[in-house]
């Protein structure tokens, strides 16, 4: 089958890196195998992927990002550098694929397409004011991380919700109460059910304990939609 060619960039570009390596891989969720040849020249990245599987480009994009980012993490450990990696484009002539990746999560972009950004941002800025705002800011940071790190989406989604539970406890004078009481109050304010929270927690628990867990783009979409529903419900209630 025609190989897939991915392009990207190592960030920040001012910290130049040149590196070449090849690896075999097995997709955690599906078990599909392939090989990736990675070439990084002055932070410009080209990755050739050979596999007999007919991949969805977003799932394979996540595989490529993990391969490169994992090697950058090893470089970071050895050198004390904090590199990041962005995949920008994929080509496969045999399948007539030539796609430039955006920064959006399509299901969330569609979900929030009618939002007035200026008005919504002003409202959030007001809610994050004061000493308890740190919990909301942690929530938003974790939600951003859930979008950036495909394999850890559930981990960040649930931790974002836990930050909201702490916020809820703080504003309602329940910081010293037990977790059961705090979660009950959180569900009351957010309007979410215990079952929804449990489903997100079940997806997150293996990752929270250092286990490796894969998933598909469809799995991530369900997590995103459930988590954003919980967060939206809570923000409407505070």
Automatic annotation (TrEMBL):
InterPro entries: DUF8168_C, DUF8168_N. It holds the Pfam family DUF8168_N. It comes from the Bacteria. Residues 4-101, 122-236 form the DUF8168 domain. This is Uncharacterized protein. It comes from Alicycliphilus denitrificans (strain DSM 14773 / CIP 107495 / K601).
């Amino acid at each position: 089958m025609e190989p897939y060619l991915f392009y990207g960039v190592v960030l920040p570009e001012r910290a130049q890196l040149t590196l070449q390596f090849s690896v075999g891989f097995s997709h955690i969720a599906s078990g599909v195998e392939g090989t990736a040849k990675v070439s990084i020249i002055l932070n410009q990245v080209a990755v050739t992927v050979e596999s007999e599987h007919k991949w969805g480009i977003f799932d394979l994009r996540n595989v490529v990002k993990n391969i490169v980012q994992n090697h950058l993490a090893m470089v970071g450990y050895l050198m004390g550098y904090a590199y990041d990696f962005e995949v920008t484009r994929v080509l496969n002539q045999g399948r007539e694929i030539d796609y430039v990746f955006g920064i959006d999560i399509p299901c969330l972009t569609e979900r929030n397409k009618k939002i007035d950004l200026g008005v919504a941002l002003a409202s959030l800025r007001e809610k994050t004011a004061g000493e308890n705002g740190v919990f909301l800011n942690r929530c938003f940071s974790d939600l951003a991380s859930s979008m950036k790190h495909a394999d850890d989406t559930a981990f960040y989604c649930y931790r974002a919700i836990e930050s909201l539970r702490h916020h809820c406890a703080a504003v309602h004078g329940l910081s010293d109460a037990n977790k059961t009481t705090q979660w009950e109050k959180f569900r009351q304010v957010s309007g979410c059910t215990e079952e929804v929270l449990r489903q997100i927690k079940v997806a997150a628990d293996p990752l929270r304990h250092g286990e490796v867990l894969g998933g598909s783009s469809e799995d991530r979409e369900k997590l995103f939609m459930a988590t954003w529903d919980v967060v939206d419900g809570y923000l409407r209630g505070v």
